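Notes taken during the Thursday session

The instructor put the following on the board and asked us to keep it in front of us for the whole hour. The protein is Low-specificity L-threonine aldolase. We were told not to look anything up and to reason only from what is written here. First, the residues (340 in total):
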Amino acid sequence: MKIIDLRSDTVTQQTQAMRDAMLVAEVGDDVYRDDPTVNELEKLAAKILGKEAALFVTSGTMGNQLALMAQTRRGDEVIVSANCHIFEHEVGGAAVLSGANLRMLYFEDGMPDVQSIEAAIRPDDIHEPQTALICLENALANGRVVSAALMAEIYQMAKKHKIPVHIDGARLFNAAAAQGVDVKELTKSCDTVMCCLSKGLCAPVGSMLAGPRDVIERARKYRKMLGGGMRQAGFLAAAGIIAIRDMPARLHIDHENAAHLADRLAGLDGVTLDRRPEINMVFFHIDRPQKELDAIPAKMLKKGFKISPAENGRFRWLTNNDVTRQDVDSAVDALASILK
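Then, after some discussion, the predicted structure tokens were revealed:
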């Protein structure tokens, strides 16, 4: 039985073009910087993201943590959203790796606002830590997209205070596709940016960290410290090149399938959408007792669909390159039969 996986876009399988490229990739030792395929990926990523330099890293978490390590000193403070990945899902890395304090701000529905961020910047006071970095997400973990205009407003404020801005862009290309803009329209409003290659872009492994050359050089050294100095990594970089070069152009299909999924779910009795999806993420509630909600993932799996359990009563389904419009319809039909 074919299994359709709606748990995340991290489950994407590499395309045949990626498999072919990996098979014939020219490789070297990346720690010595003589892996030509990694070098090509880093050069290409820097160009696409509009930055001086880029670094191939194993994961989005590593990329974010390297950005913090390279731009803060022990005891510095980093402004973040209380719901952001850096705070919630990176195992307390900022405390362990950077010795930095995370100042959490609560934004309505996760959407940052410039006034709250500016008010959180520390004064020059001997009793207070120095605000060293502002971290934003785009797209947000709740699937919302931060507009290019809002990104620019926050960045201009940060520049006024001489504080760098880092973007956790795990789904940055989705955010750009949703707004119909080139990704550089978003990255021009930051100093450093991380983007994942292994989510909607379908690479098997890896993320990119891009920014000023001196910052990326510091991050490269810290990457080695963390055990991320890969050797013949060109096999992975070959897939990454295709991911960042070719795959953003098809993300609108995932978004359209997510919109169709939302429409179908909204037609089911007892199902309530959180909101219309802006990218490939659909959040919804089912009005059933908790015991019934807990049983739904196992029942869906028997019908050929992998889904995550409800979190605080809310389900999250994601479309991706391996999920067709027909798969979406079949998944909703399966859920409807369970709810009857």
